[in-house]
Design a protein that fits this description.
Structural class: alpha+beta
Helix content: 25-40%
Largest sheet: 5 strands, antiparallel
Number of strands: 22
Distance between the termini: 35 Å
Number of domains: 3
Shape: flat
């Protein structure tokens, strides 16, 4: 009986060692590839600041690790030479001058004159193209996404119980009409609208009139209002935030809840996720399991499987030791029960030692001999 138990644990240990070697093989391939990239880096690009928001007037785009050539970067079609800028001499990388949105949907360099109350980035994607000097064929490019800027909203009261809402930021470039907001208030006694141009504040007279109670304030972008005129026949655009609050008997506010993008409309079509704020895993796929999230790439799956297998095997060994101890404690002097309990404990301990040594062999081969970054 003891031989059969030992054989099972040895088979489990050999299986774990086999998985370890597969993991080592995958890591060898990944390490070799990374060494090649380090010796011969791929061209790369980035934008500063990142992420880019509506409130940003200008950005700079950098390119690096390109073949040593004389380049030009273009803020439109390369055939439009007026929007192409020369690197002047051969380089392997460069950073553009400050770039702004050219009346929302195109780009222009600061040399062409970025005007705060006229030029701005719209929501969406913009691309900077790189070609060889004097050529139209695009060699490299960088596309950056412009995310929505959310206003910083502060509800407050003053002495006497007057209620106000103040918007501190952002100040979006592109003219006064780009910073008009509709403050929609509601309670069980009615609904009303106020208009506010940021930065600024507006009194919510209806709150003092209606008296203590629970109110909800909705912060909307005002659109189609005409040149710079707040409340000039504009309509509700994007709903930024919903603020639930109590107007207390002492004429103060207690904020109950703040919900950003309550209609869940701020979706980035390029990344399939909310743009407030951008983030999350990119380029990695996971599946949900009873053991948590597991990566689906071969190396990640093997690592997760190995960890789960070790955990289960260790747990089984512990249970067997407890069971063997139980048999010994309640053997009542029965030689067969005593012998059986000892055999169970011995098999569990030997199996656990074999499992520990299989992990030791993995780390010895992977780290000490092959010098691979085996994860813990």
């Amino acid at each position: 009986m003891i031989k059969k138990r030992l054989a099972r644990y040895f088979y489990l240990a050999f299986l774990l060692i086999g998985i370890s070697f597969v993991l080592i093989f995958l890591n060898v391939n990944n390490t070799t590839t990374s060494h090649v990239k380090a010796a011969d880096p791929e061209p790369s690009s980035s934008v500063d600041p990142y992420p880019v928001y509506e409130k940003d007037l200008t950005v700079k785009v950098s390119f690096a690790d390109m073949p040593f050539e004389r380049y030009q970067y273009c803020l439109g079609a390369p055939s439009d030479r007026k929007k192409c800028y020369d690197s002047e001499f051969p380089v392997s990388g460069f950073t553009t001058t400050a770039i702004c949105g050219d009346e929302k949907w195109t780009l222009k360099a600061s040399e062409a004159g970025c005007v705060f109350d006229k030029d701005y980035f719209g929501l969406g994607n913009y691309t900077v193209y790189v070609t060889l000097f004097g050529k139209n064929q695009v060699e490299f490019s960088h596309t950056f996404h412009v995310y929505r800027s959310y206003p910083k909203v502060l509800p407050f009261t003053r002495e006497g119980g007057n209620a106000f809402v103040k918007i501190l930021e952002p100040i979006r470039p592109g003219g006064g009409d780009r910073n008009n907001y509709i403050i929609e208030g509601a309670s069980e006694k009615g609904i009303w609208d106020e208009c506010l141009t940021a930065p600024g504040e507006v009194e919510l007279g209806n709150i003092k009139t209606h008296g203590p109670g629970t109110y909800v304030l909705e912060i909307w972008e005002e659109v189609n209002e005409g040149p710079t005129k707040c409340g000039g026949g504009g309509s509700h655009g994007f709903l930024y935030e919903q603020i639930w609050l109590d107007y207390n008997k002492d004429r103060s506010f207690t904020v109950l809840e703040r919900i950003v993008d309550p209609k869940n409309e701020d979706i980035d079509p390029t990344e399939g996720g909310s743009t407030f704020p951008p983030g999350g895993f990119k380029g990695e796929d996971f599946i949900d399991t009873p053991f948590g999230q597991i990566r689906t790439d071969p190396a990640g799956f093997a690592q997760a499987f190995l960890g789960i297998a070790l955990g289960i095997a260790g747990g089984l060994a512990f249970i067997l030791m407890v069971f063997g101890a139980y048999r010994l404690m309640f053997a009542g002097g029965n030689p067969d029960s005593i012998q059986s309990g000892r055999q169970i404990i011995t098999a569990a301990v030997v199996g656990l030692i074999v499992i520990i040594f299989s992990v030791f062999i993995l780390r010895l081969i992977g780290i000490s001999i092959l010098q691979l970054p085996i994860p813990g």
